[in-house]
Every structure is written in C-alpha cells, then in structure tokens.
Amino acid sequence: MPQITFLLPDGRAETLEAGDAPTVMHLAIRHDLPGMPAECGGQLACATCMIDVAEAWRGRLPEASPDERDMIEDKVGRVPEGRRLCCQIAVTSALDGLVVAIPERQA
Ligand code: FES
After folding, report:
1. What is the mean pLDDT of residues 61-69?
2. Is any ligand 1 atom within 6 A of the Cβ of residue 102?
3. SS3 call for 17
4. In total, how many domains does the chain have?
5. CB-based contact 27:21 (threshold 8 Å)
6. Domain-embedded: residue 32
7. How far is the centre of ligand 1, averaged over its atoms, from the C-alpha of 67 (Å)?
8. Is the pLDDT of residue 107 over 80?
9. Closest ligand 1 atom, CA of 46?
10. Residue nearest to atom 3 of ligand 1 (CA)
11. Angstrom distance (rounded) from CA 45 to CA 28
C-alpha cells in the first residue's frame, strides 16, 4: 500500500501507510493528525480537510472538481496553488510517496 507523508502545522512530518483508507482525509483522521477536523466526514460540505500538495505532485493527482474548487474559494477567497480538500483524493497505489502539508488553519 502507498505511503503518504503529511507535513504538520507544528513542523513535524508523519509518513503513514495508507492501508485500506479510502481517501487521504480518512488516513489523516485515523491517525488523529492535528489540524484536520474534517467536520463533515468527507461529504464535501465543510472544507475543513484542506491540504497543500507538494509541488512535485500537483500534476500527478486527479484534478479537483468544480465543486471542490468552489468550496476552497468560498473558504479562503481564492484557490491557492496546490490547495485541495483531501476527502476528495482517493487513495490508490499511484499515490505512493505523496507529500502534502496540513495548513496552519482550516479557514
Ligand atoms: S471532510 Fe468536509 S469537505 Fe472534506
């Protein structure tokens, strides 16, 4: 299974085995990573599962849907480069080595 590295708001890094986590958000929640409330549980209704995808990975993930981009824009006023809602990123073997950062705030 793929390994995914999360850069945490406090500067630490956690590299986790994805196991059977269906999405990147589920993996973060299962390991109780800080800064990831994911309040709606993956229903694309809260935008509290934001991550910043490492630059080297930005072109390697499926593109965000218009709804995902709208949610991010509503929350932060724009869509920063690499910003995603990680409940919308399905875990696949192609994600092995993915690096994402959890922003300091989910607002
Ligand atoms: S968990 Fe709510 S939008 Fe991702």
Report:
1. 97
2. no
3. strand
4. 1
5. yes
6. yes
7. 12
8. no
9. 2
10. 44
11. 18
Let me know if residue 65 belongs to a domain: yes
Nearby residues of 84 by Cβ (< 8 Å), 6 or more positions away: 50, 51, 52, 53, 61, 64, 68, 72, 100
Order of all β-strands in the sheet with 3-7:
13-17, 3-7, 98-101, 50-53, 83-85
pLDDT tens, position by position, 6-62: 999 999 999 999 999 999 999 999 999 999 999 999 999 999 999 999 999 999 999
Considering the domain boundaries, does residue 107 fall inside one?
no
Is there an atom of ligand 1 within 6 Å of 101 CB? no
Atom of ligand 1 nearest to the CA of 48: 2
Determine the structural domain holding residue 35 and report its residue range.
3-101
Asked if residue 51 has its Cβ within 6 Å of ligand 1, the reply is no
CATH number of domain containing 9: 3.10.20.30
* The amino acid at 7: L
pTM for this entry: 0.96
Q: Could you tell me if residue 106 is inside a domain?
A: no
